[in-house]
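queue> pop job 88
queue> type: inverse folding (structure -> sequence)
queue> payload:
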């Protein structure tokens, strides 16, 4: 099978939508039915949203939940009325993300809230990153982030456990 791209038509231009389909030709010259139609848009007029601000947890904050609520906001997009925030969390210094959210869509001017579903690693620094995307999927702010520290969760001792001085509690 040979793949031939017909480029005899008009070239690509800015701010246009381009569609194509595929037709296979065998050695005898027989043609297949066209494939499903595909397309893409070149949009140079879309400016994209502004870089989001991470509101919580704050830089260097010690969180005691393994699935802390993360909040980002203060995004402006003059082309759209709403947009999404994509949250990413990874171990500090690691290349791979522990989790990446689907876009959390909120009306323009409102804060986006998200909590990881994958528990973070206790007693370890993590990096939280957030970027904003608009209705067309165009985004800014990738890599904007800061470190949060996940501390030990407090587990109260049973009522009848001795305290550090050796006395019994609760009884």
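queue> result:
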């Amino acid at each position: 099978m040979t793949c031939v791209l017909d480029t005899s038509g008009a070239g690509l231009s800015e701010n246009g939508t381009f569609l194509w389909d595929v037709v296979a030709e065998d050695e005898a010259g027989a043609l297949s039915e066209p494939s499903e139609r595909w397309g893409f848009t070149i949009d140079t007029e879309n400016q994209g949203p502004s870089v989001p601000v991470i509101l919580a947890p704050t830089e260097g904050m010690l969180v005691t939940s393994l699935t802390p609520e993360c909040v980002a906001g203060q995004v402006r997009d003059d082309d759209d009325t709403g947009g999404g925030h994509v949250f990413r969390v990874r171990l500090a210094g690691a290349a791979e993300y522990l989790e990446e959210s689907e876009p959390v869509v909120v009306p323009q001017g409102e804060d986006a809230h998200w909590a990881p579903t994958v528990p973070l690693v206790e007693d370890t620094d993590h990096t939280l990153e957030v970027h904003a995307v608009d209705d067309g999927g165009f985004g800014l702010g990738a890599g904007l982030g800061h470190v949060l520290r996940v501390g030990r969760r407090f587990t109260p001792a049973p009522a009848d456990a001795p305290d550090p001085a050796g006395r019994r509690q609760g009884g």
